[in-house]
């Protein structure tokens, strides 16, 4: 259907070592990546490391054709798991090839791309929700009641240590705490946090 970049000698081959970030989440790109060979991890990176793997693909494979068709940013981070060979097809050329397809083929590919993107976005969203739930559970387990009926949590450990207990990156813990604070579920400064809405926090925790 699409002309493969590997059949076009004018598109140079790029080589990337294992660990190289090929695409970042939320990134708009002016090209579409075609994986000639090698293996690529799909998921969510934190601090430059793949923390949550959602899938793995091996070449030959179009890495981000679905988001390119729908003109969306990348829904996942893409990291080379092995040494990879890939080619970058300019976005305009990719879309011209798509526009040249029969209309029924265009409709089919758009529907498939939309389904893939929706499933991927749901999976990434669940990862974020899972991190929030684990953090909320930890806060509730370590909460202490005060004379005024309020619940407080004294952070006696460093955030890095707490994050390790929760199985998330320190950056993820900071982001989740910031979100909980923005939603009014935690308050306070320094090492003392108050839980003004324990019922709502229990809902986040799934309790």
From TrEMBL:
Q: Which Pfam families match?
A: HTH_Crp_2
GO cellular component term, pick one: cytosol
Q: Does the keyword Amino-acid biosynthesis apply?
A: no
The UniProt record lists the HTH crp-type domain at: 129-199
InterPro entries, alphabetically? Answer: cNMP-bd_dom_sf, Env_Response_Regulators, HTH_CRP, RmlC-like_jellyroll, WH_DNA-bd_sf
Record's keyword terms, sorted: DNA-binding, Transcription, Transcription regulation
Query: Which organism's genome codes for this protein?
Result: Melaminivora alkalimesophila
Starting at the broadest rank, the lineage of the source organism is: Bacteria, Pseudomonadati, Pseudomonadota, Betaproteobacteria, Burkholderiales
Q: Has UniProt tagged this entry with the keyword Transcription regulation?
A: yes
Q: Which domain of life is it from?
A: Bacteria
Which GO MF terms does the UniProt record name? DNA binding; DNA-binding transcription factor activity
| Protein name as annotated | CRP-like cAMP-binding protein
The record's PANTHER family line, in alphabetical order, gives: CRP FAMILY TRANSCRIPTIONAL REGULATORY PROTEIN, HTH-TYPE TRANSCRIPTIONAL REGULATOR ARCR
């Amino acid at each position: 259907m699409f002309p493969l970049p590997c059949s076009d000698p004018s598109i140079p081959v790029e080589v990337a070592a294992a660990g190289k970030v090929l695409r970042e989440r939320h990134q708009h790109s002016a090209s579409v990546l075609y994986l000639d060979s090698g293996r690529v991890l799909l998921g969510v990176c934190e601090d430059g490391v793949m923390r949550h793997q959602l899938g793995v693909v091996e070449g030959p494979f179009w890495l981000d054709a679905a988001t390119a068709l729908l003109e969306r940013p990348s829904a996942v981070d893409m990291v080379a798991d092995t040494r990879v060979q890939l080619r970058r097809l300019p976005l305009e050329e990719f879309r011209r090839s798509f526009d040249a397809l029969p209309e029924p083929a265009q409709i089919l590919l758009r529907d498939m791309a939309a389904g893939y993107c929706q499933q991927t976005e749901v999976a990434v969203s669940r990862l974020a929700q899972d991190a929030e739930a684990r953090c909320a559970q930890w806060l509730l387990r370590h909460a202490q009641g005060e004379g005024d009926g309020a619940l407080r949590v004294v952070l006696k450990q460093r955030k890095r240590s707490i994050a390790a207990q929760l199985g998330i990156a320190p950056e993820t813990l900071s982001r989740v705490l910031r979100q909980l604070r923005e939603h009014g579920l935690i308050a306070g400064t320094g090492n003392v946090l108050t839980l003004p809405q324990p019922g709502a926090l229990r809902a986040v925790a799934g309790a």
